[in-house]
Amino acid sequence: MTIPFSRVLFRADASLSIGTGHVMRCLTLANALVGNGAEVLFLCRDFPGHLGGLVRERGYGLILLPPPGKLFRPLDEISPAHASWLGMRWQEDAKDCVPYINAFAPDWLVVDHYALDRRWEAAVRPPNARLLVIDDLADREHDADILLDQNAGRKESDYAGLLPDICQLFVGPRFALLRPEFAEKRREALARRNMPVPRRILITLGGIDKNNATRRVLEALQSAGLPFDYEITVVMGASAPWVAEVRAAASQLPWPTRVIVNATNMAQIMAESDLAIGAAGSTSWERCALGLPTLQLVLAENQRDAARALAATGAAMTIDVGMNLSASLAHCLKLFDEDMSLLPRMAHSAAQICDGSGVDSLNNWLFDRTGRDGDMA
C-alpha cells in the first residue's frame, strides 16, 4: 500500500539576475503536491525580486534567508558556472538552510538552482529525505534520486557521470512543469491554429526582463512596417524594473496595445494569440502546449541550447537581439505573408512537443513510489 508523503521543502531563488522561472515552476509542482495532501515550505534568499510575496499569497510556508552581505565572486575552479547566483559560498548557504531543513524534516527536498551541486545537496540532505533536482544545464554533479530536465534536445546521456546510478531521469518537454490551465486550454487553442497570417501578437520576455528587451521589441515593431490591423498584448511581471517605460512605449504604437502585469490568465491570453515574441526560457513549453508559434529571443546564454533545439523542430524561429532586431522581426513577419502555410505548420510542430501534463506525470510518479520500502525503481 502506498503511503503518501507529507512534507516537501523547495530550495529555489528568484531575483533581478536569476529571473522568476525557477520559483514559478516550483510553485506549479507545489500546487500539484498539495492537491495530494503534502505540506510545503519554500527556502528563498532575500534578493531584490525574490517573489516571497507570491509564495505566501499561494498559501505556502516561506523562509526568507538573509540577503548576501557583499558582492560575491566564486574563487574555486570547481564551482558551478552560475555560482555567483547564490550570492555567497555554497557552504554559507548550506549553513543557513540546514536548521530549517532539519526542523521541517522533509520527505522530499526539491532543489531548483543553477548555483547548487552535489556538495551542497550532500551537506544539507537529511538521512531519510529524498532529493529531486530540477535542472536545465547538465553541467554539474548531483546527489539526486530524481532529476527533471524539461528542455528540448536534452538526452539522458547528457547526464552520464553526473548522477548516482539509482537516479531516475525525467527528460524532455513532455515533463515540463506547467500549470493545469495550459492542459485545460489546449483543445480551445489548437482549434483556432489555422490562421494564415498572425494578427494578434503576444510579447512575453520573462518575469523580470532586466535588460528591457520588451521596449526594444516594441520599438523594433514600430519601425518594421507592419499592417495596421495588428493587436498587441505585452505581459510582464510585477518585479520587472521597466514596466513604466514599456507602458509609455506601448502608448506610442499605432496598434491597439495592452500591457498586463502579473497576468492571472496566461493560458487564455496565449490561446487567443496567433504568434508570440518570447524569451527562450521556461515559457517556451507553455506556448508549445497551446500550439502557439514563436519568434524567440535568446536573452541568456543558458537558453541557447534549448532555443536551438526548439527551432530545429519548426515550432519557433530565433530572432537576433543585436542591432538588427527590427530587420530580423520584419523579415520573419514577411515570411508569413509569403507562405500562408508557415504559421499553421509552426503551430502543429509546437503542439507535438508537449501537452501540458508533465506536472501530473511527475506528481503521480512521486506518490506511487513514496513509502514503498525505499524502492525508487
TrEMBL record:
<dbReference type="GO" id="GO:0016758">
    <property type="term" value="F:hexosyltransferase activity"/>
</dbReference>
<feature type="binding site">
    <location>
        <position position="179"/>
    </location>
    <ligand>
        <name>substrate</name>
    </ligand>
</feature>
<protein>
    <recommendedName>
        <fullName>Glycosyl transferase family 28 C-terminal domain-containing protein</fullName>
    </recommendedName>
</protein>
<dbReference type="InterPro" id="IPR020023">
    <property type="entry name" value="PseG"/>
</dbReference>
<feature type="domain" description="Glycosyl transferase family 28 C-terminal">
    <location>
        <begin position="229"/>
        <end position="348"/>
    </location>
</feature>
<dbReference type="InterPro" id="IPR007235">
    <property type="entry name" value="Glyco_trans_28_C"/>
</dbReference>
<feature type="binding site">
    <location>
        <position position="286"/>
    </location>
    <ligand>
        <name>substrate</name>
    </ligand>
</feature>
<dbReference type="Pfam" id="PF04101">
    <property type="entry name" value="Glyco_tran_28_C"/>
</dbReference>
<feature type="active site" description="Proton acceptor">
    <location>
        <position position="22"/>
    </location>
</feature>
